[in-house]
Amino acid sequence: MLKPLLLLTLLTFGIATSCLAQGKSASNSRKAITLYYKAEEAAQARDFNKALAYLDEAIERDPKYADAYLKIAHLHRAMGNKPEVFENLQKGLSLKPFNAGLMNSYFDLADLYFERGDYENARKNFEYFLRGKPRNGRMTDFARQQIQSADFAAEAMKKPVNFNPVRLPNNVNRFELQYFPSTTADQRHLIFTARAGHRPDQDENIFVSQFRDNQWSPPSSISPAINTTANEGAATISGDGKTIVFTSCNRSDSQGDCDLYISFRSGDEWSKPKNMGSVVNSKAWDSQPSLSADGRTLYFTSTRPGGIGKEDIWVTRLNEDGSWQKPENMGEPVNSKGRDMAPFIHVSGSTLYFVSDGHLGMGGLDVFMTTQDNKSKWSAPENMGYPLNTHADEGSLFITADNKKGYYSRQEMTEAGASTIQLYELDVPENWRSKVKSTYAQGRVYHADTKKPIAAVVQLYDVNADSLVQQVNSDKVSGEYTIVLSEGRQYGLYVSAPGFLMNSLHFDYISRKSLDPVALDVYLKPIKAGAAIVLNNLFFDTGQYKLERESKTELDKLITFMQQNPSIRIEISGHTDDIGSDADNKILSERRARSVADYLRSNKVPKDRITSVGHGESKPVKPNTSDENRSQNRRIEMRVL
Fold it and tell me: In degrees to the nearest 10, what's the CA dihedral of 33, 38, 44, 48?
């Protein structure tokens, strides 16, 4: 994105001195004019302080000396003193009628008004600049964009979004600078980047605060394995809190300016961070990562070649073998010709939040949101409005899994005039929420016999689409796992480990109204004769034995299990509730079991490894006294022979 003051000061000394030399200077005081030309000589000698002293004296002689004010502004611009530039441009231009020759001064003043959120005066001076018929195309385009932004901002401020951010307590905001907040899916851990101050020796580190007794604890370093004397920042954590990706710069193993690093948690210990390698990182700046809930998709910001703007958002995905794919540019409509940064993907995977100055906004970096349709296409980004967005640059926004709470950082000035960045919490307005509501299932995976925690693969499938939605690993020390569940889907949850029967569970979030968290411990049975499991994701129409298409995920899991354990034989048994006659139920259960066995045989599982049997209503697991109990009695089981 064009930075006008930077552009106009590329040749600051030349600009300042040439402006002082422009023709005659109008004043009713000859002494003031003499001082003006002495200032010109001092500026040409690069003695700007002496030049400013002459000009100050000239204004004392003639307080309405417009040219002197403008020359003071140009000198201060060359010296990088923006407040003085603003003050003197205001005074000088207010004393003169419109003059096309002053178009660059109008441009500078307009930009300074914009920085202060004075949209009306910014618009007026950008229009003066355009009236001068400038030849610089970049500046012309920028002025027109800022006029559009001023109009947008004026309308946005008439319709402010109703949200009330609350600063997090001092025990959390205990640093001079803290930013990039995020939480785990269960909202028990708040992770953010912080530094004690602005000095170079005060490096960035990653901190974590825990939610205990209805309040956030004082933050502590996330791990000595992660935080070093180098800068570690802009971190993202997976929904289960077991994978973290963060940015670090200028390490011995860096690929470029700043790289992305990854670390994994086992128990309470984080692994030594590993550079994500040349496939993910580039020789450019790679930063501001955001992981999907299961840690298998990564969005991040990069200045690498091949983008649309200076900074773009890129995405990479984890392969089945644990390697990462070559990142892809998200392209339009998300990325623009400006800066598109700080992505945050909601745990539902349906909504992306990011900051940009390339889409229509209120000036600087605004927060935008975009949603993904069922064809994986992203919508045109939507500005999230005032007062979250202002004329200043905004930071990243994080929204919790349940769409209720949001966290972001805000730059402020202390009473002493120092710049600080503080963390805020907010109740998320309805129109900011992810289009899909989410919750989570959380528990531990145990050995069914010893009751000891085990490491297992936990996979979540959309059984309607027969597609893997998430995959996480239970902690090998504690057995803990967390997986996100979103509305509008019918899920099959599969927990498996070598040497154990898989455990399959079913979650129907298509019609469910409640999205409360699910506490679910899973017990895996060792593979041995007599061990049996219920196959919870096999579906039949009422009174029918033909397998419905939603059963494919479970059936294919069975085939994989048989391939991985080629020496075992299994029995597929069918069971019904007590509705209908005993004879009819017996026949129905036999046919349903046979349908499953036939599917396996038709997919290259040897016939002699599978038998099927129907028990009808003779082996209920619950009394047939309610609809819920009857639904559990209608089942297909697999037993090891």
Answer: -100
Q: What share of the chain is helix, strand, coil (3-state, %, to 5)?
A: 25, 30, 40
**197-212 b/e (C-beta count within 10 Å ≥ 16 → b):** eeeeeebbbbbbbeee
Pairing state between β 286-291 and 297-302: antiparallel
Query: Mean per-residue pLDDT for 466-491?
Result: 92
Residue 83 makes CB contacts below 8 A (sequence gap 6+) with: none
> Could you tell me the two tokens for 37?
């030309």
Length of the chain measured in residues? 641
Backbone φ and ψ for 223, nearest 5 degrees, come out as: -175, 140
Could you give all domains of the chain from N- to C-terminal order, each with its CATH number?
A: 30-158 (1.25.40.10), 171-432 (2.120.10.30), 438-640 (3.30.1330.60)
Q: 636 with 610: CB under 8 angstroms?
A: no
Q: How far apart are CA 145 and CA 351, in angstroms?
A: 27
Distance from the first to the final alpha carbon of the chain: 68
Residue 233: phi, psi to the nearest 5?
A: -160, -175
- pLDDT score at 230: 87
> At which residue do the structure tokens 């992305």 appear?
260
- Average the pLDDT over each of 156-160, 434-438, 510-514, 627-631 and give the range with the smallest value: 510-514
Rounded to 5 degrees, φ, ψ at 427 are -85, 125
The two beta strands, 205-212 and 215-216, are antiparallel
Average pLDDT, the chain: 91
Q: Do residues 491 and 462 make contact, with C-beta atoms less than 8 angstroms apart?
A: yes
Which pLDDT score, from 0 to 100, does residue 71 have?
Answer: 94
